[in-house]
Write a structure and sequence with these properties.
Blueprint: E1 10-12, H1 13-18, H2 20-30, E2 34-38, E3 41-46, H3 49-61, H4 71-85, E4 91-93, H5 94-103, E5 106-107, H6 115-126, E6 128-133, E7 142-150, E8 159-169
Parallel strand pairs: 1-2
Antiparallel strand pairs: 2-3, 4-8, 5-6, 6-7, 7-8
Length: 170
């Protein structure tokens, strides 16, 4: 296996202990930080005072992030996207449903090889499959409930008919 060479200067903890000023000079000459290794793992980065102050100034010049949308507006937009992605009355495989929901930022407890079986079992037991939005807004959990039923016309066990999609916040 070929080792990857870093494009930045490196040093070791031992070298830093012997002469920290040599490592600072190395950073100054290279115009970048020096990665400091401890037992073949990066322990930190050493910068000159000027490099550090430049980074702080750049951070201060960065624009403030835009405030998050109020939860009601976010839910409305998400509901629109969900209704465009999951059409009521459409037949879809459980795997395709899961892929679409994951692409929209949702997760479910049903994973791995038994995931589709678990999804169809949940659907047959409760009439719905529940997903949770990965990110929380204002510490509130957002759930998507896909209401449906197994497609009895299909030869495949994992086909379901979407009846309705609801969003709830907890």
């Amino acid at each position: 296996m070929e080792l990857k060479k870093l494009d930045v200067p490196t040093s070791s903890i031992t070298e830093v202990k012997k002469s920290p000023m040599d490592v600072f000079n190395q950073a100054r000459e290279a115009g970048t930080g020096v990665y400091v290794f401890n037992r073949e793992k990066i322990a930190g980065v050493m910068l000159t005072k000027e490099q550090y102050e430049t980074l702080l100034q750049e951070l201060q010049r960065r624009p403030e992030p835009e405030p998050e949308l109020p939860i009601a507006e976010e839910l409305e937009g998400l509901a629109t996207i969900l209704h465009q992605t999951l059409v009521n009355g459409a037949t879809i495989s459980a795997k395709n449903l899961d892929e679409r929901m994951v692409a929209l930022g949702f997760i479910t407890k049903k994973t791995g090889f038994g995931g589709v079986n678990d999804m169809m079992h949940e659907l047959n037991e409760s009439g719905k499959i529940i997903y949770q939005l990965r990110k929380k807004n204002n510490h509130k959990m957002i759930l998507a409930e896909v209401i449906g039923e197994q497609d009895g016309q299909s030869q495949l066990f994992d086909k379901l008919i979407i009846k309705k999609v609801y969003l709830r916040e907890l």
